[in-house]
Fold this protein.
Amino acid sequence: MVSSALRGAIGAGFMVAAMASASAQVLEIGADNGPTGLDPHLITAFPSFMVVNGNIYEGLTAIDKDLKTVPGLAESWSAAPDGKTYTFKLRSGVKFHDGSDMNAEDVVASIKRVQSKDIASPLASRLAAVESANAVDAQTVELKLKEPSAALLSSLATIAIVPSAMEANKDALQKAPVGTGPFKFQEWQPNGFILLTKNEAYWEKGLPKLAGLKFNIVPESATRQVGLSNGQYALLPNIDAATALQLKGKPNVKLAETMDLAYTLIGMNVSKPPFDNAKVREAVNYAINRQEIVDAALFGAGVPGGPLSPALKSWALDVNQFACYKPDPAKAQALLKEAGVATPVAVTLKVLPRQDVKDIAQVVQEQLNKAGFKVELVNQEQGQFIQDWRNSNFDMFASINAGQPDPDEYFYRTFRTGGSTNVFKYSDAEIDSLLDQARSQQDQAARKTAYDKVQQKLACSGPVAHLTYGTLFSAMNSKLQGYDVMPNRSLMLLRNASY
């Protein structure tokens, strides 16, 4: 027989549990663009990363807010003395969102999927050093490398683990993702919203605290701002400086900021004239006034930047070391003359459909046109821009790309001959050699020396004119607690948030 006191305690417990359950809400997020797909091994656009990375999917390792590599789905790992064998111990009790157990076979299949030529993952170069992946037992994975890879552990944070049944499937995960993360896919209404719900079986006890995440696709900045101010949306992630300035000081709105790893850029196709000529690429850099771009397009909330973000203090060179970063339109015109090209040099500049990138493109157009170029801007919708980017169907493009904690993760796949995101068709034997050296070295000082040389060469004559690194803002309702902005634009810390 249950005493009245015990019955009262039980009743109170039920009431507390009910109140706790009722307090968990679906977080309403205002996003400027919808994703073009949700397959973590195929996506390249920020709107897709924002939804899936760290929310739906996880890797063997993870990157924390200080950009350090920490355990993810692997609770621990060890490396052989020669750096060519890694053994990962997986967490027990991890389940995919479909209820199946996550085990070593899924990890092996995920790595093979990224490496598959049929899948053609843009992440493939990050696993170029991996010779084989083997399941030692259900909870142990062994990776054998062709040569040591200093960036391997950091890179594995970007390789999402998917069910082994998906290894050869190119289509299923684009619209129906299945991961292990704190939130699981529920619904996608194109141009409307994407709804993720709480993963009740998530391996990290007590997380997530929210009942779900709803990414509302709202292209108009003014509409998003009003929605945040009136409480319709609780978070506007990764907003530009103009939006942040307009929201500053609004009632019940708080801003969080950090230095962005992402870089704005002008990309050039070196497989066809005029950008097959290094002097023309150098002329582009001399024509550009990066501080003017920061002032005019970023409202001063950023800095001129080279191939690596100033946030990577142990890696990035000071831009004052790059001669071509001192604006000199006359020098640009002289280089065009040396290149033997007829001026004005007529080129098209395709523009990613983001307001900050559009603003940057207009400033760059004006600067280039004063230095011997004739630039036509082509504003595209996101899907077409990405398709043309993938197919190297461009003269030039203006975009913003995600940065990574280790230089290898950007440089190797982007600038090495045949790299999985080397859409520029760039090939340079010296760069290839330096990238190979830096990847295989374990000594930090030796890697730094190699990457310094890479930055020096890429800055002026590479296929990318790096422009700026902005201050990364997120605007949120003052009631949102426990969420931190990450320099790599990941929203994975929403698992810790409450509202």
In short: The radius of gyration is 24 Å.
